[in-house]
């Protein structure tokens, strides 16, 4: 199992998630740029983990990065974990839900003020709670 609060077997995740959600959230996949539900989404509210519904990002921190994925300059403190990612011949920082360990995307240091960070997140990893 895991060190996360939400503890489920991979079979349990497979039963609960769609094939695409499972591929991204549990197998660290990526959705194609400009195809996700939230890349051009502008409502006020909170973005939550699609797997466990933990609150991850406030809409006030969302910005247009031009990357084709929803981008945020900060997280809801304590709810997103950063992990070194050396896959695909690159050195990046993966971000996962700190509640269930599901893959969200990656964070880069080319974002806007005040943090300079760009949390580049797969739409399929998110749900949205309207304000």
Could you explain how this protein is built, in words?
The chain is mainly beta. The protein has one domain (10-130): Peptide methionine sulfoxide reductase (Metal Binding Protein, Guanine Nucleotide Exchange Factor, Chain A), CATH 2.170.150. Helices cover 11% and strands 31% of the residues. The protein has helices at 10-16, 19-25, and strands at 45-49, 55-58, 62-63, 71-72, 80-85, 92-97, 103-108, 118-121, 126-130. A six-stranded antiparallel beta sheet has the order 3-4-8-7-6-5, with no helix packed on it. A three-stranded antiparallel beta sheet has the order 2-1-9, with no helix packed on it. The longest helix is centred in the N-terminal third of the chain and has 7 residues, at 10-16. The protein is globular, with a radius of gyration of 14 Å. The mean pLDDT is 95.
């Amino acid at each position: 199992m895991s060190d996360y609060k939400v503890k489920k077997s991979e079979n349990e995740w497979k039963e609960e998630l769609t094939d695409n959600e499972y591929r991204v959230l549990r197998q660290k996949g990526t959705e194609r740029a400009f195809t996700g539900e939230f890349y051009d989404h502008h409502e006020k509210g909170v973005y939550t983990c699609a797997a466990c519904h933990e609150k991850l990002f406030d809409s006030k921190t969302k910005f247009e990065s031009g990357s084709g994925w929803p981008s945020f300059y900060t997280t809801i403190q304590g709810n997103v974990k950063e992990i070194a990612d050396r896959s695909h011949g690159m050195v990046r920082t993966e971000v996962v839900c700190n509640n269930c360990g599901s893959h969200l995307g990656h964070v880069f240091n080319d974002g806007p003020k005040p943090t300079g960070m760009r949390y580049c997140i797969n739409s399929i990893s998110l749900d949205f709670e309207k304000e």
